[in-house]
Amino acid sequence: MYRNYNRDLQRKRGAVLGLVVVSTLVLAILGVGLIMLIMQLGGGQEIQHATDSGNLNVAKQVLRHPGIKLQNGDEQNIFGDTIDPETNEANLLYYNRLVAQALLIQNNAAVLNTGNATSHSGQMMNLVNGIAGRLNDQLVTSGNFDKHFHDTAQNHAMRMFEQLGNNLTHVGQSHEVSHMARGAATNVHITNAQILNKTGVTPPKIDDFAISGPDGKLYLVGYKQLTTNGGSTLWGVPLRPTQPPHLVSDKNFVTNQPRGPIPQFVPPNSFKSAGLTKDQRASNMSTRALSSSIVGSLKKVWQAQIPRGVIVVDNKGSFCGSVTKGDFDIWVDKLMNPNYIEVLGPDAATGLISDDSNGALQNIKDYVDSNFDALMSGDQNARDGLSNRLANAGIDSFGNFPANPTANANNPDFIRFIHDNSSTRCTNGASPVATSASSAKCNLGKFMSLYGQGSGGGTSNNDCNLMAVEKYHVDLCTVRASGAECANVNSQSTNSGLKLYPQNGNCGLTNVTQGTLAQLLAQTNSASEVTQQLVTYMYQINPEAEDINGQIAGVLGSTVTFDKISYIYRNPNNNKLVLSTQTPPWPLPDLNNPSMNLPDGPTSKYYRQVNMDALTNCDGECGYPHPWDCPMGSQASGQDWSEWTPSSGFRNILGVLKFRNRADGGGTFCCPC
Q1: Model's pTM, two decimal places?
Q2: pLDDT at 430 over 70
Q3: Looking at residue 612, what is its pLDDT?
Q4: Do 530 and 644 contact (CB within 8 A), yes or no?
Q5: Cβ neighbours around 191 below 10 Å, total
Q6: Which of 266, 258, 282 is nearest to 44 (CA)?
Q7: Torsion of CA 624, 626, 628, 629, to 10 degrees
Q8: What is the rounded radius of gyration, in angstroms, for the C-alpha atoms of the chain?
Q9: What's the pLDDT tens digit per position in 99-121?
Q10: Helix-strand-coil percent breakdown of the chain, rounded to 5?
Q11: Residues 533, 530: Cα–Cα separation, whole Å
Q12: More confident: 469 or 29
């Protein structure tokens, strides 16, 4: 058979060509598909990178945004200096500071152990938890994170999807939160120096609510119940000091989503974001990517603090009195025991006067009475003896007779005058006394004229800055200046503020100054426990000051202004602890309102009994050798005291310290006894 080889060849060639065409078409389709697959995979990576970037920015920015404004009233007054100063809001970064403040107050209340302190601590927890709940509401609201997400996600172009203008969308429905790193550190640390101590009470144990952080400090533990008060609990949020925000696996994120024991109001610390875009090049389908991350506070850490804490130092109360500076007067050395003025004759105006304390005029009278007949008969030996005695007697005034001992000794009228009259010792306690009428033997006016000394007088200045024992003292000196031989002096029996003065060993009230806080505590025997608690409270107020120990020493060494109320607090202008009569620049509760129940701790009183004799019967007082020779004995008593009422710190009050001085009783004083 004849075959057409040319036709067969043509047929084979046509089959091969068709196969080549089909193969080429298949390869082209496969190539296009491969390209589309590569673009899909590349686009998926681009959207994942953009979503991761956006979600990391969420974890970074969520520390400060969103935040919430504090409500007027207790929230603003208590936490006004605890929130973020840049945003003036409470946010996730500063939330643990609020928790720490409430924890300090709870610890204080536990040590004080009073019903009011416990109640106030519960109110404080409720305030914090109310803020936490409002913050939590913001953190679970997806719309608050759109901007955070887009701010960085839009910087990642998705060329594989022909997305030159980035349309990556934050998918709100996919916004989720979680509570990761349970048991890790918050960003607030605490020290044992901030734990209040009280005799007979076991203080809270710091290990129960704090763990060691990466820097060795003790941080409040996060997502663990820190303390409880009735139905209120306190929880911190782990922010992991020194750690940056970072991505986490979806598995770990989901595992920690169930809150378990964590209450609903506690804010989250982990966030899931979803990014959505459309593949405009290949599939024309929407593509979504998920990303989960956890926050980290890096270097934003603080110490537990009550920044608006205040300790009130009440030194109110004063008296007005006439402060007399005595002059040199007749009472100083002429009529003051053991001296006296002797008068021989019926009246000091006409009789003989001597300030000799040896009874010279009585001795002269005894001589005259014994030798009267010889003297009257002109016996010269007897008269010479009288002349010598008159010359040696130190007579200051001869009354109506000349100041001539020899002439008087030879004068029968003088001799009869001595014989017919008696001598009287005139002192402040004589009878009749020196202050009686001029007709009496003792004539104060004559004495004052003779010796050139007044009755007391002196200069007086009114002073309205006196404490109680000072008032008693100046009243005594004022009466002393009147020249009266006796007087009744009674105390006000009312409390005043307190100054620094020594009790014994010298005239204490001639050396009175305003005392420092440490000095007045020591003066009232309250230095030990009260000082320890004051120091603890100051560590709670301003623990982050580099020179905190120096600041505390400065406060203890500051003067407590008399008749003023002073305040210990942190001056926000220079971050220094002060003891000042200027009120803090934030509202304080009315402590005089009983319904406030502040301060809320137990009150302790400390006393120093004062020996009033040692204060008011001293050399040199008011310009006199003594104001009175007779000590008052048990007629009057003095007392210095301090009253310390610690407080939990609720509404910023950490305690009230009162200093008081009191004088009670009084009596009759005479010069001399």
Answers
A1: 0.82
A2: no
A3: 81
A4: yes
A5: 14
A6: 282
A7: -140
A8: 49
A9: 999 999 999 999 999 999 999 99
A10: 40, 25, 40
A11: 5
A12: 469
Cβ pair 642, 481 in contact under 8 A: no
pLDDT tens for each residue of 312-325: 999 999 999 887 77
pLDDT-based confidence at residue 504 (cuts at 50, 70, 90): low
Residues 6 or more apart whose Cβ sits within 8 Å of residue 31: none
Torsion angles phi and psi, residue 642, rounded to 5: -125, 145
For the record, the structure tokens of 283 come out as 């599939």
Task: Give the integer Cα–Cα distance in Å for 17 and 23.
Answer: 10
Instruction: Name which of 50, 56, 53 is nearest 293 in CA terms.
Output: 56
Q: What are phi and psi of 174, to 5 degrees?
A: -95, 0
pLDDT at 673: 45
Question: At 360, which amino acid appears?
Answer: A
* CA-to-CA dists, residue 434 to 296, 393, 440, 666, angstroms: 92, 21, 8, 25
pLDDT tier at 278 (50, 70, 90 boundaries)?
A: low
Strands 310-314 and 653-670: parallel
Dist. CA 471–CA 469, nearest whole Å: 5
Q: Which of 530, 493, 540 is nearest to 653 (CA)?
A: 540
> Would strands 176-178 and 319-325 be described as parallel, antiparallel, or unpaired?
unpaired
Question: Which phi and psi (to 5°) does residue 596 adopt?
Answer: -70, -25
3-state SS track over 374-405: HHHHCCHHHHHHHHHHHHHCCEEECCCCCCCH
Q: Are 479 and 494 in contact (CB under 8 A)?
A: no
Helix axes 92-112, 115-139, angle to 10 degrees: 170
**Tokens 């301090």 belong to which residue?**
642
> CA–CA separation, 578 vs 517, rounded Å?
12
All residues at 6 or more sequence positions from 224 whose CB lies less than 8 Å from its CB, including other chains: 182, 183, 209, 235, 236
Q: Would you list the DSSP string of 243-295?
A: PPPEEE-HHHHHHT-S-TTS-TTSPPSEEEEEEEEE-TTTT--EEEEEEEEE-
| CA atoms lying within 13 Å on the CB side of residue 161 | 28
Tokens of 334: 């002429």
Tokens representing residue 559 in the block: 């003067």
Cis-peptide, bond into residue 203, ω within 30° of zero: no
269 φ/ψ angles, rounded to the nearest 5 degrees: -130, 5
Whether the CB-CB separation of 436 and 424 falls below 8 Å is answered with no
pLDDT per residue as tens digits for the range 487-501: 788 888 899 999 999
